Amino acid sequence: MSRFVSAITLVGALSACSVFRSTAPQRLIYEGYSTVVATNPTVVDAVVTVRNTGAAAVQMNSGLCVLHLEAYTNAAREGTPAWGSGMPACLALGLVTVEPGNTYDFKTRGTLPASLSPGVYYLALVGARGQDRIPVGRVTLP
């Protein structure tokens, strides 16, 4: 049973939407990766690290309630996902401040259902409104 999970790095300007919300435009680096932590069923931990390379602090919504994991059958992560973890229930959101040169990790865990067909699935962490989709690797199901 082979499993492969990769890391993907994105560089971009922060936009004012969903999870990655800022009080001003900043230069951020997004590093996404995932790790298979259990098999049968397949459980994946996914992380997006946001690194502030700008000159000003950035405030963002934080917490598991603003992210969910999706699995796609195409590397572009376009169209309808083959599976999504759904949005967890959440009563409160917090704000986190990322100072220049610092990082913050957005984390979540998902259990891929046994009903998924064997093959390669491309994973993404998705913000609450579906506007932010950060690639976090891929997994191969036997």
Could you give the topology of this structure?
Layout (H helix, E strand, L loop, with lengths): L6 E7 L13 E12 L3 E11 L5 E5 L4 E6 L10 E2 L9 E5 L4 E10 L6 E9 L5 E9 L1
Antiparallel strand pairs: 1-2, 2-3, 3-8, 4-7, 5-6, 5-9, 9-10
Strand fraction equals over 45%
Q: Over all CA atoms, what is the radius of gyration?
A: 15 Å
**How many helix segments?**
0
Q: How many domains, as an integer?
A: 1
CATH fold assignment: Immunoglobulin-like
> What is the distance, rounded to the nearest whole angstrom, between the alpha carbons of the first and last residues?
6 Å
Q: Pairing-aware structural class of the strands and helices?
A: mainly beta
Largest beta-sheet details: 4 strands, antiparallel
CATH architecture classification:
Sandwich
CATH top level is Mainly Beta
Instruction: Report the uncertain regions.
Output: 1-22
Helix content: under 10%
Tell me the total number of β-strands. 10
Shape: elongated
Average pLDDT confidence is 78
Give an overview in words.
- By secondary structure, the protein is mainly beta.
- The protein has a single domain (7-135), classed as Immunoglobulin-like, CATH 2.60.40.
- It is 0% helix and 54% strand.
- The chain has no helices and ten strands.
- The strands form three sheets. It has a four-stranded antiparallel β-sheet with strand order 1-2-3-8, with no helix packed on it. A four-stranded antiparallel β-sheet has the order 6-5-9-10, with no helix packed on it.
- 31% of the residues are buried.
